[in-house]
Amino acid sequence: MKKLITLSTVLILVVTLIITFSIVGCKATTATATTAGAATTAGAVTTAGAATTAGVATQKIKITYVRWTQPPYDDMYLKFAKDFMAKNPNIEVEILFYPDPDAPGKVKTAMSSGGALDCFSVNNFESSWFMANNTVEEIMPSAFGKQSLQEVIDMWEPGSLKVTGGFYNDKYYGIPEEEANYSAWINTAYMKEVGLDPVKDIPTTWDEFVNVAKKMTVKKGGTITRDGFATNLKASVFPFLILSALMEQKGLDWSTEQGLLSSLDKPEAIEALKTFTGWATTDGIWDPGLFDDEREGFGNGKTATFLTGGSWYWGVLKQYSVKNEDVMPFKYPRFKDGKDIGGVGYGYTSMVAKQSKNKEWAWKWLDYMSSFPNVIITGGLYQPRKTLDPALVKQYVPNSDVFVNELPKATVALTSTKFNEIKDAVGAAIDRVITKGMSNEDSIKQLKIDVTQILTK
Amino acid sequence: MKRKKNSYYYNKLQNYGYIFIAPAIIMFFIFLIYPMIYSFYLSFFDWNLVGPKIFVGFKNFINLLSDGRFLNSYKVTIYFTFLSLLIIMILSFFLALSFTANIRFKNILQSMVFLPVICTMVAIAIVWKFMFQSTGLLSYISSIIFHVKIPWLTSYTVAPYSMIFVYVWKAVGYYMVIFLAGLLNIPEVYYEAAEIDGAGFWSKLIYITIPQLKNTIILAFTSCVIFTFSAFEQQYVMTGGGPSRSTEVLGLLIYKEAFEYNKFGYGSAISVMFFITLLFFSIIQLRIFKSET
After folding, report:
1. pTM, full prediction
2. Tens of pLDDT along A135-157?
3. Which of residues 233-272 of A touch B (CB under 8 A)?
4. CATH superfamily ID and name for A37-51+59-179+346-401
């Protein structure tokens, strides 16, 4: 009887195992960049390319920069990279674009594998994770041509490095990429349609907001075919940020972990949650089943208002069917007896990864990239560098008073390394009331249990 | 001497065979075996992908047992799996039985039933998500024809069944083909003999068809449990686990714990529980349906 397992069979198996473990043990270098070059859901992953002078085979320093994709702004950044490379022929800048929800994950993967990553931009909700886990470098003043850190900080509007998420534990790690605040948006064409005045009838309180939204809600055969208000219940970050503003307007502290946890014992928390969930359950202005993405829904005329758009939305709106002249941002409504606080203030910060082999050039690229606030503002994106011309803000950001004036009153978003878990727990609390019929009181109680577990695990 | 020469030649042939399958084996090890082993290893650590791995022993598993979210997810997955399994098995079996008969447009109908199988789940989930919207096709049909407004994906009681509906629609063609192959392998003489003895449709089904299909049923049953238990894309695209976590299956929870919350150790522990559950089910099934081969 022939032997099934011969010496040569065993040898082949051993060799296979050795090859396997050798391959998986290898650190990815350019593999990460190549993989990142594959199609994303946006389908628009491009790189700036290498601008080499013809025939010169110099040792180029490659800077890999990761950011989120957001047409029409992607082309602007590609142009900045091209210009930077033209000015610095020994530098190659590769920009990797990812959908916003995926970008932090891609950065973390590149950090874990030691892959190609020099610098990246990330939102202020996620930035604390990177700073807390010692994965990013402190700001290097010399790369900016400055002697001290304070000189670098003074290049931007006061407080903007903190608001945009570049500050942690008394240290500065990131420079502002974008600063924004959520405002409320309304379709003025629909207002006129139902006999409302787009100037006089703009709601200033939440009660007025509900009344106006009710008038603009369209129902056919008992089914809402146009929401008066909408937000994406499936993406917990948006309900979380809206609720944060409501909570802070009620005088609660949702900017810190302990503040959030202790606020859940207070009756104001139930009132804030009740206001939000009431839009779907009792006021009848929001059907979460009509569509998911509120930015898209508003742009396509399926909702009359939404509460999660910054000044950048002007540029995004151009992709959709609703015309810019038919919409208007307005200040976040307030509670009648609540605090004078607006929508969430947030931003994106640009940082240099600790693993970068060219930290100085990475900072130089970030400095260069963020030195065009007067170009970026043409798309509605506000970059709080002091060189920004206020006249251009007025010109390119319609109703800029809503954004710029409200920024100092913006809700301060939660800073936590467990931001994702907490926002999911809050999203679930809202979801339970709307889709499961749970009472707001019971949902807050469950939220307190969930948040306690998250913070103590 | 000749026997020795043949044995040497045979061994050489066999070794060449191993070399040919080596690339596939290597890929299998890299993308399946190694990650599985590493996942087991990671489940004993607390790791956030960039920091040091901190050994915590069985702490992750102990926390799992008291984690309401994990228990809910486990329950949702079991319910989704076994209800889908029941419907798929019955529906695909009777579809296969129907297609053994000489019916008109058999080929076209078979193709229609099989078509969803070859489409990607992500594309299917996106299309069905639109159809389930409150102004979508299914909502329109249910309100016009049945005068009932059904919150397909926004009710925590209805959404799980919507997901099962879509999954069954996608998967039934695959199992129909498996049953069809099994049915076509049953010798006709058994049916002829049964007819002579006066057996009707149900008697033939119970005493001939089902016993002859035993091995096919085992295969279909086991593979259906494994594939259905591993559901992820459908829930990720259509509901994100909502409403109220009523569709948050284990695959989705593992993804969230690992890739959104950066708790790779905890996510791995859930994966290990996932694996143990599937192993347990597979062993039970194989014992119940003891193969005669």
Report:
1. 0.86
2. 999 999 999 999 999 999 999 99
3. 233-235
4. Periplasmic binding protein-like II (3.40.190.10)
